[in-house]
Every structure is written in structure tokens, then in C-alpha cells.
Design a protein that fits this description.
It is built from 15 helices and 18 strands. By secondary structure, it is an alpha+beta fold. It folds into 5 domains: about 180 residues, no CATH class; about 110 residues, Coagulation Factor XIII, Chain A, domain 1 (Distorted Sandwich); about 110 residues, Immunoglobulins (Immunoglobulin-like); about 70 residues; about 90 residues. The strands form 3 sheets. Strands 11, 12, 13, 14, 15, 16, 17 and 18 form an 8-stranded antiparallel beta sheet that branches. It has a 5-stranded antiparallel beta sheet with strand order 2-1-4-8-7. Strands 3-10-9-5-6 form a 5-stranded mixed beta sheet. Helix 2 packs across helix 4. The longest helix is centred in the first third of the chain and has 35 residues.
Length: about 600
């Protein structure tokens, strides 16, 4: 039996075995070669890479140097002529570095099979033996021996390996320069992510004269109107490194206006977020005006670009507007007249624009409750308009509100221009109310409060009114109060009309005042109204003419009140012994009334 080597017969397939086998390439294979297409393909790739990479080492090094130069932003610092020369040098060097590639030769099939045998540690060529053929077929005995030989070789084809590619670049790069150039390129790429870095396309972009562009640029920051500060003009100097950070208030507006023929844009970099702003352009070909406007809410860096190249950068530190502060300077309480007295301090960096008090009941209503009235509204005056700090005191008459006498939590709330709200710690107290000495008046006020908190209690309140009004002699109810109580009973009894129930609340209050004060209730109400009008006018900085008019109304209301009070006191039998003292008090009050009012008016005008 004679046998030919794979190198001699690689192109001659065995009969019935290797027909249609490609000479070279990763997809070559035969039925005789049992290694499989994947092993053969990997071996082809490894062998090809070992041969190709050494010829590309210098070209790869040139590309790394070009990338590093671009990412470090060196092209941006060169005039156009120098940039063109640099590009030409890189092009020549790159072409020269590709010269060794001319010697590259793709591996043959036999070389790939030998590689598999070496990588798999198989002696006696069991892989290439599958490619061999008989020199002189036709002898039955020789063919039998040949088949046995091939079967023995095939039995050894197990765990075949393509081997790991180990290209040897030292033939062309003795000092392994290509090993550290990628590290430099990686560092340059990291630098390119900073405002001072460059881009690969910078080498191919025309040079932009930053000084000329900036000479036609105006950039400034407008503070919000409420800050009452002048605009901040941004420097035109080109100082990307170490520039002074400009501090501005949140909500400020950045304005840039450029007049020229460059294609400009604006970029705002805040952390990992980049926002590209398109200009509002005016004008036609040639010189045109581009304007940019954006509201500043977060700190970042503003980049002004001409032809996609940064020509100016401004770091901006956007300072948040502080939340206004408000707190009780004294514990809330009741004044001598029974009104709610509040003393509080406000503070804000740019001034408080409004303040109010929030009243919440301590006892939370049931889920199915039907409250008839809202919480009392407490509009609070400020120490002065747009006060940045200060303390003030105010009285609010809540005696007629149905919640008077209830346990409540009072929280103060201050608001600034941006709409930020600051709140004080809640203060728990009994909401001041009028002190009724008449037992029936106190009972009516309490039933009124119960009904106002939850209209579902209407049946209970109606039964109470019906029971009391059924015995007017026992409870000493006058005719007017009796008729009012019966009217309230008819309004409350159905319990399904909230509007009627709300009307009954006012009727119950008027009835309680009638029982407590008699005819004095009307003049007292007019006196309180006059006091409230004057107080609001003073809070709103009313004119002297309006204050004088309201003072005259207060004088008249005070005079009517004292006169009616004297009449009521004179009618009370148990106070007959005090009539003389009352008359003396009235005489003193009438004598001093005008002088007291004049002092109040003078203080109000001052």
C-alpha cells in the first residue's frame, strides 16, 4: 500500500469522499474531516489573525495617536493651515504603516489542518490523514488496509482544538509601543468628556476664530423680578479652565444674542444631562441675529458653540430660593374682647408676599360627616410689604364662627414669590368665642356648633329646639327669640337641605345674641363691623381720606353702643343700685370719647 501526504494530494479528493471541497476558507470541509466546521472556522480565524495583526501594528498605532490628538482638543488650538498640514502628515504615515500588509497571505487548508493537529496534541497526522487518498486504488487488499488505517486515524479525532491566536508583533514593533498607545487614547477619550476636550471630527472642521465670534456676542442673566437685582453680564473672555463660577438665583433667565454669519448653537450641561438649544434667528443670508433664552433651574455649564465647536463656557451655580419661615413669637390666646390674638415672626431671603393661618379641628370628623361650614379663614398681615423679616401682632374676631369654643390646631403659613410655602409648628388651643352669661344662649350656641360640624346631627338639634321652645315661660324666652327658635326648628327638622341648615346657623346666632344682649346686639354688631373695616384699611395702607371716613363711622358706632349699653343697664332691676355709677362711667366715656378717637386717628396716620 502506498500513501501520499496531505501536501501532495490536498487538491485531489478521494473518490466518493471529498467531492466538492473548497481549497481554502473558513467554510471548507469534507466528510473525511470529522473536526467540524466550527473548529475549522476558529482555526482559520486564529491563523489569519496571527498573520494579519503584526502587519497592522503600526497602522493601529497611528490611529491611536490621531484619536489622542483629537480627543485632547489639539486640533482646536491650531490654525487651518497647521491643521491641514497635520492631517497630511497623518495620512502619509498611515499609508506608509500599511505597507507590510502587502506580504499578508491567507492560510491554506493544509496549514489550518496542521494547526488543529498541533493545538490538539495529535501525533502522526490523524487530521490530515482524513484528507489523504490511495495512490493506486483498485487492489481489494490494499483498499481494505487503507480503510482500516483511516478508521484508526479517525478514532483519534476527539476533543479537537483550534488553538488560541498568539500574534507576534515584535517583528515590526520591537519595543512594544503599540501596547501603551491605547492607554493614552483611552485617557484622551476620558478628557474629551470634559468641557475642554475635543472630538474626532475637529480635524476635518474649519477653524473658528473664537475672538471674532465672541466680539459679536452678548450674554447676560436676568434675575426674577421679585429679586430686584440688576442683570449679571457674562465675560467674553475665552477661559474654559478655571473660570469664575457665576452664582444666580433659581428661576433666572439666561439670554444670549449673537449677530454674525456663523452657525451657532447653545448647550447647557447639568451633570449627565445635556440640552441643546436652538436659536431664534432673524435676518437673511449673511449677517443675521440669533437669540437664545432659557430658564435656569439647576447648576451647570453653558457652552456657546460656533459650527459645533465650543468657543465660550460659563459655569453657573444656580442657588435655590430659600423657603419662607414663619413661627409664633408668642402663644396664641384670647384678647380682652374675646377675639383671637396672634403674634408671629416672618423671614425670607427675598421677602414674604402673603401669610395666613390654617385652622383644623382636633377631633376629626367622621367619614360620612356633612360639615356645613369651612374652617375659619385667617388672612394675616405682614410687618410691611414684602417683608424679609419682622414680627407683627393681629386680632381676629372669630366669635361668630360656629367653630368658636372648639379644640383646634392653628398653623401659620407664609408664601414667597416663587410660590414656596413655609409652615410653623401647629399650636393647639380652644378657639376663642363670646362668653354668654345667659344659659339658654349658651345652649343655642353649642347646638349651633354641633350642627355646623355635622349636618347629620340635625335631628338631635331640632329635638332640642322643639323641647325648649315648647316651654317659653319656663326658660323666660321673649317673643322675638321664641319665634326665631320655632323658625329654626322648621328649617332644621327635614335635615336634607344644606342651604336651609346654613341659614339656620345664622338664625341661631342672632337668637343667642338677642337672649344675651337684647337690643344691644345690633349696635354691638355695627361697632365690630366698624372696627374690622378700620383694621383692614390700616393693614392695606389705605389713604388718609378713607381712614378719616372709617374713623367717623367708628366714632358714631361707639357712641351708639355706649348709649344703648346705658339703656340696657338701666332696665335691669338687679343693677338699679349701680345706675349712678353707670351714669358716671357714661359721662366720663362721653367726655373722653372724642379725645380717644383723635388719638387713634393720629396713630393710624403716622
Amino acid at each position: 500500500m502506498e500513501e501520499t501526504s496531505a501536501s501532495e494530494n490536498r487538491g485531489t479528493p478521494a473518490a466518493g469522499k471529498n467531492s466538492g471541497v473548497a481549497e481554502n476558507g473558513p467554510n471548507s470541509g469534507t466528510e473525511g474531516f470529522k473536526a467540524g466546521r466550527s473548529t475549522y472556522a476558529l482555526a482559520w480565524l486564529a491563523e489569519t489573525w496571527e498573520r494579519l495583526w503584526p502587519t497592522l501594528v503600526w497602522a493601529f498605532s497611528v490611529i491611536c495617536v490621531f484619536a489622542a490628538v483629537s480627543w485632547f482638543g489639539l486640533w482646536l488650538r491650531l490654525p487651518d493651515m497647521a491643521r491641514f498640514a497635520g492631517l497630511g502628515v497623518f495620512a502619509i504615515v498611515l499609508i506608509a504603516s500599511l505597507w507590510p500588509v502587502r506580504n499578508f497571505r491567507s492560510p491554506t487548508r493544509g496549514e489550518i489542518l496542521h494547526r488543529i493537529e498541533r493545538a490538539s496534541g495529535l501525533p502522526h497526522r490523524p487530521v490530515t490523514a482524513q484528507e489523504d487518498s490511495m495512490a493506486k486504488p483498485g487492489d481489494a487488499f490494499s483498499e481494505a488496509l487503507w480503510r482500516v488505517h483511516r478508521e484508526r486515524m479517525a478514532a483519534r479525532l476527539k476533543n479537537l482544538s483550534s488553538g488560541t491566536a498568539k500574534p507576534d508583533a515584535t517583528r515590526f514593533d520591537r519595543y512594544a509601543v503599540h501596547a501603551f498607545l491605547p492607554i493614552i487614547a483611552f485617557v484622551a477619550w476620558g478628557f474629551s468628556q470634559t468641557p475642554s476636550g475635543g472630538r474626532l471630527v475637529d480635524a476635518f472642521s474649519p477653524h473658528v476664530d473664537a475672538a471674532t465670534v465672541l466680539s459679536r456676542l452678548d450674554a447676560w442673566v436676568d434675575y426674577p423680578d421679585y429679586a430686584a437685582k440688576p442683570p449679571v453680564y457674562l465675560s467674553r473672555e475665552i477661559k474654559p479652565e478655571g473660570m469664575r463660577t457665576v452664582s444666580v438665583l433659581t428661576g433666572s433667565e439666561l439670554h444670549l444674542r449673537y449677530v454674525g454669519d456663523e452657525d451657532v448653537s447653545l448647550r447647557y450641561i447639568a451633570g449627565d444631562n445635556e440640552t441643546e438649544l436652538a436659536p431664534e434667528e432673524q435676518g437673511g443670508a449673511g449677517s443675521r441675529e440669533a437669540a437664545f433664552t432659557t430658564k435656569l433651574t439647576t447648576s451647570g455649564v453653558v457652552e456657546f458653540l460656533a459650527r459645533n465647536k465650543p468657543v465660550a463656557r460659563w459655569p453657573l451655580d444656580v442657588i435655590a430660593d430659600a423657603v419662607p419661615q414663619i413661627e409664633f413669637s408668642e402663644a396664641p390666646g384670647a384678647s380682652q374682647t374675646g377675639s383671637l390674638e396672634l403674634s408671629y415672626t416672618v423671614k425670607d431671603d427675598y421677602g414674604v408676599v402673603s401669610a395666613r393661618g390654617l385652622v383644623e379641628p382636633v377631633e376629626k370628623p367622621a367619614a360620612n360627616a356633612r360639615p356645613l361650614v369651612e374652617a375659619p379663614e385667617l388672612s394675616l398681615p405682614l410687618p410691611r410689604a414684602r417683608a424679609k423679616s419682622g414680627t407683627t401682632r393681629v386680632n381676629r374676631d372669630l366669635s361668630s364662627h360656629p367653630w368658636a369654643g372648639s379644640e383646634v390646631d392653628i398653623t401659620l403659613e407664609a408664601t414667597d414669590d416663587p410660590g414656596q410655602i413655609g409652615r410653623s409648628a401647629p399650636h393647639r388651643m380652644t378657639l376663642p368665642g363670646r362668653n354668654f352669661t345667659n344659659p339658654l344662649a349658651r345652649a343655642l350656641v353649642e347646638q349651633r356648633r354641633i350642627l355646623a360640624m355635622d349636618a347629620n346631627n340635625s335631628r338631635y338639634v331640632a329635638d332640642m329646639l322643639d323641647a325648649v321652645s315648647s316651654f317659653p315661660e319656663v326658660f323666660e324666652i321673649n317673643a322675638g327669640a321664641y319665634m326665631a327658635m320655632r323658625a329654626a326648628y322648621r328649617m332644621i327638622s327635614p335635615g336634607d337641605d344644606d342651604e336651609k341648615l346654613k341659614e339656620s346657623l345664622d338664625l341661631l346666632w342672632e337668637t343667642a345674641l338677642n337672649l344675651e344682649l337684647g337690643n344691644l346686639s345690633d349696635v354691638e354688631r355695627r361697632l365690630r363691623e366698624a372696627q374690622d373695616k378700620l383694621s383692614k384699611a390700616l393693614e392695606n395702607d389705605a389713604s388718609d381720606e378713607e381712614i378719616e371716613k372709617l374713623m367717623e363711622e367708628l366714632r358714631q358706632a361707639m357712641s351708639d353702643f355706649l348709649e344703648q349699653l346705658a339703656k340696657e343697664m338701666a332696665k335691669a332691676p338687679q343693677q338699679q343700685n349701680q345706675n349712678n355709677a353707670m351714669n358716671n362711667m357714661q359721662t366720663l366715656t362721653q367726655r373722653d370719647l372724642e379725645r380717644m378717637m383723635d388719638r387713634i386717628e393720629n396713630l393710624a396716620r403716622s
